[in-house]
Each structure stands twice: as C-alpha cells, then as structure tokens.
C-alpha cells in the first residue's frame, strides 16, 4: 500500500490536514505533487532535520526491522525493549501526526501500523544513501560456493525453466486485448471465461505457471484459469482495459485507445508499478533488495552476494553463507523469476554459486530520467512479403500493430512478429471496422519497401468480392390485412419506426425497438399480440461505460493484510497515553526535587506504569535520564532497578536518589 491509497481511505478533513502541513506545502512550491512528497527522497532529507531525535530513531528502526510490513504494538514493543515505552508511544504518535506512519484498526480493536511502500523507498535512501554505485559494480563480496549444493541445484533448475524466448508483458497483454477485440467473451454462471477461450488466450502468453510458481498467487476461478492467464487478466482489469458488464468481458474503448497510444517503455513502467503495489514481497530483506534493485540503471549487472553484503551493512540481513543462499533463492523465486518472465530483467546462476542480475529495460521513472532522448521513430517499418506475410519489428507502434492484427492472422509473436494476410482475415477486418481499401492504405503508408503488386491486387479483389450480399436480423410487424397495415403506417409515431414494407401487410421494424412499438400500438388502440417465440434484442452493453468498481480490483487477491481494515486517524490524547495523570501531584512531572524514600518509590512505580523515563540524581552522580524497570519493597528496604537505555542496568536504594522527576514525552 502506498501513501496515495492511504490518503484516499481517509476522511476528507484528515486528508486535508495532512496535505496542509508546511513541509508538504514547501514541496508543492518546488513542483512536487503533494501526494508524492511523502516518498520523495529530496523532500524527506529536509524533513529529517525537523524530526525529533526519538522520532528519527524510531523511524529508522521501523525501516530496518519492519520495512513496509504491517506490525503490531507487541512487535514494536519487542524491538524497542531497551527504550522507555512512553518515548516509543510519543515518537510513533509524532510520525503518525506527520502522516509518515499509518495506523489501522482490526474489527476487535487491535491495531496495526504500516510504513507505506513509497515511504520505505524514500527513507531507505535517506538513512543509508542510494547505494546504487556501491551495489552496482564490482565482484560479489564473498562466494556462495559452499552455501549448499541444494540451493545451487534449485537455482539452476529455475534458470533452465525460465530460459525461453520472451516477448515482453506489454506484448502479452496486447495479444489478449486483440483477442478480446475479435471474439465475444461471454462468462459462465460462475463468472469465468469459457474453457475454449481460456485455452486460446493462455496459448498467446509468453510466460506460464512455472514462471509464477514462487509468487504464491491466489485468485478467483483457480479451478478454471492457469495462474499465467489469471495474472494477465488481473493486469488488464486493474488498468480498466477489460471489464465485466453483466455476463461478458468487454474492452473499454477510450482507455484502450489511450493505452495503445502509450509507448512500450511507459506501459512497462505502469505495469511494473501495478506489480510492485500488489505483489510486493512480505519478507523485509526482500523488500529492501527490491528497492535497491529498482535504482539500478538498465544494463548494470549486480551479483546477489554483493547485494546481500549491502543489506548486511544496512542491518536488514544477517547471517552467513547459509542465510545469504536462502536470501538469493527467495529473491529469485518470488521476484526475479516473474520479472524475467515479463521480459524486464535477466538473471543467471554463476559457477561460483552466485547469481548475476541486470535490467533489460528500465521499468521505473528514475531509471529512465538520465537516458538520452531517443530519435524519432521512422514511419516506414513494416516488411510486406510477396507470400502475403507481414513482418513487424519492435519499433512498430502498438496503434499500427493493432490495426494490422485486425485484418491479418498471427503466425509468430516475438520481438519480430509475423502476420499473414488471408482472404478470411481481410474480410474479418472489414467486419471489425477496417475495410480492405483502408487495410491496403495502412500497409502502403508503413511498408519500408512498399506493398508487392500481387498483394495489392489480391487484397483489392478480396474487397470487391466481400459484402455484396449481407445477412441481417430484422423484426417483422405483421398486420391482419392490407387495410389495417395502411392505418398503422399512417400513424405519425408508429410510421417513424417502420423501416420497410414487405408485401401488402407486413413491415420491417428496427431490431431492439419492438418494446417501443408494442407500447405505441397499444396506445393507438390496435391491441398488439406478441409472437410466442419472440424475444426483443437485449440492449447492448456500453463498452465505453465505466467498469464496475469491483472489476478494477482484478481477479488476483491482494496479500496486503491492511487493505480492508479501517484506517485510524485519531491520535491518542495525553490522558490516554498517561492515564490517571490528573490523579497524581503535578509536581512529580513538573519539577525535579527531593522526596522521602517512600514517595520516591511511588513516583518510580507510576513511571513504570506509564513506561516513562525519569530525570534523577543517583548516589551523588550527575543528573541523568533513567528508565525505571521495577520498584521493589521488602519490609523497610526500598530498591529500584534502573536502565540507561543502552544495556546498562543498576539497582539502587530509593533513599540514594536525591532528586527525581518523571519525564512525560509529549507533555513535559
């Protein structure tokens, strides 16, 4: 989950309050969109200077220990066992007040806290530096040769399973969209595609279930769809390109036009963002690895042992060779293998047992920001062969390829695609809005060496033969005799719905207008009768309408445990953080002074209850901040256990504390 999604879940007043903070306004003044400021590295570096020391310390711990994984108060308490609990609560409240950490409430009242994904990316760079220059070059820091033959064998097996030609996810989805354009996609009563469409659409994809096996995807209709098709349909539905209307799947034509007009690099960026938003790893070490990998430029090679060493330096990965091998295998299975299947990166096991990884194409804006501007693509890029094959190179825009796919049969889909012109395909194109003369014009406009004369003449001949005879469905209005037919035709409203008269007493009525005709005839006093076998044509669904809300969620279930939880925006009050504060003497937390040993014991017990530190002068030493852990009374012996928060502990007699004051973070 990212900050934009969290802001969308908030009540408008709470969202406005967060976006109205000075540091957000300052970012907006520098051209940074308010919602993006929460993850912008430059903005966060400036914000870091404004954080309280305890806030910064806690935020760094959350980045390292929890990443973007939801965590409970108990988990946070365990990680901050040496801290004063009140300091943790106050620092967490401060981070929530700034909108950096989100809180969610379960149905039974328990809370979960979360650092959003874009926050993890930004704060990782702020606390540890970008890391790309260090991680991206040089040999691995330590070989994994001795990590275990089982790991190496499994890596080799995964590599061989995925070692096949890839056409790229953008092209995979293009082929599915083209299939949906040329075929009706009715759904079963359970809401799934029919088996014949499932088989044909799955065959179009360049990846399969072995590529996605490590992701653990769970999805609707798992007994019908293979995981590869489910993942592809999920992308299309989340993009709003394919949506369900009643009992069928339809293309959303306006969104489709925009998508086809988008270049492949931008499409890949959008697809990768969807994948990271909804399939981000749960393991914190893998999350940090993904954030680092995202910042590597295309073509930069990195060894996973080097990446593991960098994560070890950042305290997000611990252990020796065995742990490093486990990390590498997990990263390959859960992240690198799917991305390799989508054609975005490549990875390869080395003889040393290490793994090298490199991006094939940039998939994030940061990776493309410093690229040189590409030269304009030529308008002539197709190769039309005398044998009626059309060869389409990678630089062909999707808009052109879309039109060709309407009137040509796909022979081979690769980086260089091959289509074949046939009589059936050209006539099919005419049925879908691309008549033969328009198809020929498109080929001539983009063919690098022109269209062979035989191809041109043949397409023209196919066009002349096609459409001279048309089959169409009509609705027939039948009158009892010619006199009644004359009366019906003279009616001003009924007459406008009559297309053509057949014989003396019958008329053709537009399909789908029978219901209107029945009402008009009845109102005019003709008392119409409907044939027993008649069914008025169902009003066609609007393919350009808004998709149903639920379809935008896709069919693959999110693993994010907080997406359906209630967002909690109310911050705790001082009375909630320090219950009973009004029932004790205010001087206990307002002034440092001496007390009787029995009173000091009461003060310390109250501090322990609140988890608050104390400012105390112990056994004649300098005044210092201590974290009281326990106050024990054994007869007249009153002892207090204190911690310095850095692992140092001491036990003193209450009477040896000459001055004391409770510190209430956020209050005093």
Describe the structure.
The protein has 668 residues and is of the alpha+beta class. It folds into 5 domains: 3-129, Arc Repressor Mutant, subunit A, CATH 1.10.10.10; 149-359, no CATH class; 383-465, no CATH class; 475-523; 576-662, Roll (SH3 type barrels), CATH 2.30.30. 43% of the residues lie in helices and 14% in strands. The protein is built from 30 helices and 20 strands. The protein has a 5-stranded antiparallel β-sheet. It has a 4-stranded antiparallel β-sheet with strand order 8-9-11-10, covered by helices on one side. A hairpin with a 5-residue loop joins strand 6 (345-349) and strand 7. Helix 4 (41-48) crosses helix 8 (117-128), helix 17 crosses helix 19 and helix 21 crosses helix 23. The chain is elongated and about 120 Å long. The two termini are 35 Å apart. It comes from Paenibacillus chitinolyticus.
Keywords:
5 domains; 4-stranded antiparallel beta sheet; 30 helices; 20 strands; 43% helix; 14% strand
Concise account of the structure shown:
The protein has 668 residues and is an alpha+beta fold. The protein has 30 helices and 20 strands.
Q: What's the number of domains? A: 5
Helix-strand category: alpha+beta
Main β sheet profile: 5 strands, antiparallel
Distance from first to last alpha carbon: 35 Å
The share of residues in helices is 40-55%
Number of strands: 20
Beta-strand proportion? 5-15%
The overall average pLDDT, rounded, is 88
Number of helices: 30
Low-confidence stretches: 133-143, 533-540, 547-551
So what's the overall shape?
Answer: elongated
Reading side by side through the largest sheet, how are the strands ordered?
19-18-17-16-20
Radius of gyration: 35 Å
How is the quaternary structure best described?
single chain
């Amino acid at each position: 989950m990212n900050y934009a999604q969290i802001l969308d879940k908030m009540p408008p007043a709470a969202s406005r309050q967060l976006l109205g903070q000075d540091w957000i306004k300052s970012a907006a003044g520098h051209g940074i969109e308010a919602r993006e400021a929460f993850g912008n590295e430059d903005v966060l570096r400036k914000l870091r200077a404004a954080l309280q020391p305890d806030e910064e310390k806690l935020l760094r711990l959350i980045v390292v220990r929890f990443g973007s994984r939801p965590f409970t108060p108990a988990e946070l308490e365990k990680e901050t066992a040496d801290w004063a609990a009140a300091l943790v609560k106050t620092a967490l409240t401060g981070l929530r007040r700034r909108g950096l950490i989100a809180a969610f409430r379960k149905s039974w009242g328990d809370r979960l806290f979360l650092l959003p994904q874009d926050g993890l990316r930004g704060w990782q760079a702020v606390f540890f530096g970008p890391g790309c220059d260090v991680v991206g070059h040089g040999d691995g820091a330590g070989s994994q040769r001795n990590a275990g033959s089982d790991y190496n064998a499994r890596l080799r097996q995964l590599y061989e399973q995925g070692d096949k030609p890839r056409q790229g996810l953008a092209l995979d989805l293009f082929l599915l969209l083209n299939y949906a354009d040329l075929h009706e996609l009715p759904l079963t009563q359970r809401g799934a595609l029919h088996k014949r469409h499932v088989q044909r659409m799955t065959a179009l994809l360049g990846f399969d279930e072995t590529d996605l096996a490590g992701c653990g995807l769970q999805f609707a209709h798992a007994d019908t769809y293979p995981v590869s098709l489910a993942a592809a349909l999920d992308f299309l539905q989340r993009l709003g390109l394919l949506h369900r209307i009643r009992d069928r799947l339809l293309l959303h034509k306006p969104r489709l036009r925009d998508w086809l007009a988008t270049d492949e690099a931008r499409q890949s960026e959008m697809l990768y963002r969807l994948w990271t938003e909804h399939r981000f790893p749960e393991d914190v070490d893998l999350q940090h690895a993904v954030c680092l990998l995202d910042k590597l430029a295309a073509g930069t090679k990195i060894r996973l042992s080097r990446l593991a060493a960098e994560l070890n330096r950042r305290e997000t990965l611990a252990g020796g060779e065995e742990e490093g091998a486990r990390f590498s295998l997990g990263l390959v299975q859960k992240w690198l293998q799917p991305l390799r299947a989508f054609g975005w990166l490549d990875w390869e096991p080395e003889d040393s047992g290490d793994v090298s990884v490199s991006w094939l194409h940039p998939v994030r804006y940061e990776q493309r920001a410093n690229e040189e501007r590409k030269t304009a693509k030529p308008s002539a890029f197709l190769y039309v062969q005398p044998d009626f094959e059309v060869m389409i190179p990678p630089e062909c825009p999707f808009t052109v390829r879309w039109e060709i796919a309407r009137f040509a049969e796909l022979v081979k889909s690769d980086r260089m695609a091959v289509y074949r012109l046939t009589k059936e395909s050209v006539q099919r194109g005419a049925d879908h809005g691309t008549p033969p003369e328009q198809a020929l014009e498109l080929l001539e406009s983009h063919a690098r060496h022109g269209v062979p004369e035989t191809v041109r003449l043949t397409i023209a001949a196919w066009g002349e033969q096609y459409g001279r005879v048309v089959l169409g469905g009509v609705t027939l209005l039948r009158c009892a005799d010619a006199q009644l037919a004359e009366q019906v035709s003279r009616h001003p409203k009924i007459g406008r719905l009559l297309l053509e008269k057949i014989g003396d007493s019958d008329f053709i009525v537009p399909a789908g207008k029978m219901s209107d005709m029945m009402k008009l005839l009845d109102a005019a006093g003709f008392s119409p009768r409907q044939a027993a076998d008649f069914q008025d044509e169902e009003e066609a669904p609007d393919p350009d309408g808004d998709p149903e809300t639920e379809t935008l969620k896709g069919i693959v279930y999110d693993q994010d445990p907080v997406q359906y939880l209630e967002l909690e925006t109310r911050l705790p009050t001082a009375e909630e953080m320090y219950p009973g504060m009004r029932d004790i003497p205010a001087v206990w937390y307002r002034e440092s002074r001496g007390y009787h040993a029995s009173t000091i014991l009461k003060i310390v017990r109250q501090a322990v209850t609140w988890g608050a530190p104390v400012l105390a002068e112990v056994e004649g030493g300098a005044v210092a901040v201590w974290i009281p852990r326990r106050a024990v009374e054994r007869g007249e012996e009153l002892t207090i256990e204190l911690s310095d928060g850095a692992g140092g502990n001491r036990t003193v007699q209450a009477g040896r504390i000459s001055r004391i004051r409770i510190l209430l973070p956020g209050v005093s």
